[in-house]
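Please go through this protein, sequence plus structure tokens, and consider how the sequence yields the tokens. Keep your notes short.
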Amino acid sequence: MIKKVILILIISILAYFGYRAYQSLFKSNVELNGKKYTYIYIKTGATFNDVLDELFSQSIIKDEESFRWTAKGMNLAENINPGKYRIDGTMSNRSIIKMIINSKQEKVKLYFNSQIRTKEQFIKYIDDKLELNESELEDYCSNNKLLSAKYNLNSDNLMALIIPETYEVNWTITLSDLFKLIETSYNQQWTETRKAIVKKMGYSVPQVVTLASIVQCESGIKTEQQKIAGVYINRLNKNMRLQADPTIVFANGNFEVQRVLAEDKEIDSPYNTYKYKGLPPGPICLVKPSTIDAVLNYKKHNYIYFCANSDFSGTSLFTTDFKTHLKNAQAYQDALNKKGINR
């Protein structure tokens, strides 16, 4: 009888611990308070305790002791892979730990688009999205010797390297690997055919990208872009100032304005094309490949003036006559006044 009781007791204990082990390994141990998922970020060089702190500080894990026990049993401490990881409400201790051990990271999407106007905005965007830190990025993007050797660029025209598109990368991607991806896209864009056209035009690739950035800020219509590019090239050829309003917007750093005022044109900046001849030091936004092609295939004509149409159609009025241009410009200013667009 005693043996039977002892046997039952042993079986009960084994069953209990077996059930606890099953729960620890396979049952959901996540509490997300109504959310479908959340993310944890494990930094490069993180320790076992760092991983636990990341999970426990967010109150993601319901039973912390079972997670700790399971993590030790699965040797998580010796197999920590840094990265961004997605945690959903169905996950067990085992599935979370296996995800980290096998480095099943959630990819980070980087959207490089024309809304990134400055090198500083680019650096801030990357700093917000990836593990890379701001000071490391700033040092890299300001190192003229390195930029010249690697890309034949400098800190002013570095943005010419970046082609607007979406990248999917690991949160832990290194600075070197990030710029390898950027450089690959650049090389795919700048084929030998396109480079030959640039050379025939008498410009460098960064100069064409800079011109294209101005054109893109003037219009999103390809046929208009081709004509506008023709105007600016005519002005450059005649040693005239570009007098491009988008460069004034860039120089002032207020990208929300819809109207450039006379006092805006007084700013002393190398990007002020009302004050200084030639192209500004670098692009004033990230440039779409379609705009690059519009500039490379610019419309040859004799126009040296253009102004946005007062009907706000997105088209422009082109002319060779300054008086006609002043008339067109006044009509546009009157249209802005009528709409109450003062800034």
Remarks:
- The first strand starts at residue 37 and ends at 42.
